[in-house]
Amino acid sequence: MDRTGKRQKRPRRCSQAKIYIGVVSSLFSILLGIVLGLGAFTFGYGKGASYLSNDPQTCVNCHVMQESYDTWEKSSHHDVAVCNDCHLSHDPIGKWVTKADNGFFHSLAFTFNDYPDPLRIKPRNRRVTQHACLHCHADFVHNMLPIGEHDETMSCVHCHSDVGHALHARVYPTLEPNSR
What we know:
The protein is an all-alpha fold. Helices cover 53% and strands 0% of the residues. The radius of gyration is 27 Å and the shape is elongated.
């Protein structure tokens, strides 16, 4: 107020800046709401909470994993190991890093229906599986492992490919031998 008791007008710049900030904040809030809403919907629709468990049924949330689940049920490890025992790291941080990495790429493939056919394990996950074999079977294989620092170890699944997943031909006898 000035000396006469009248209100003074604020400069237009100040009110334009507030309008601009308000519009940008509103647009950001709307965009954030859409992203969070879609994320929550996708998490719920994809049964995302089940991925926090050790239940092998989780793997068949995605229909392309049904064959892998069926072959696991017929395998020698069915009664002693679940998917996470062989396909995730046994240290807590590595477990969640692998779970997040695989979860992201699995959900991406699921969302865009972009699966390789046939499914193939990535090199990083092959190393995780090798470490899982050694985690449980180190006492049996320690004499077969290389001694030198740079000696290479043959992958356990090179010879024991049907331990975790029975040969697909046993479960799906109509498959051609080369389609595995």
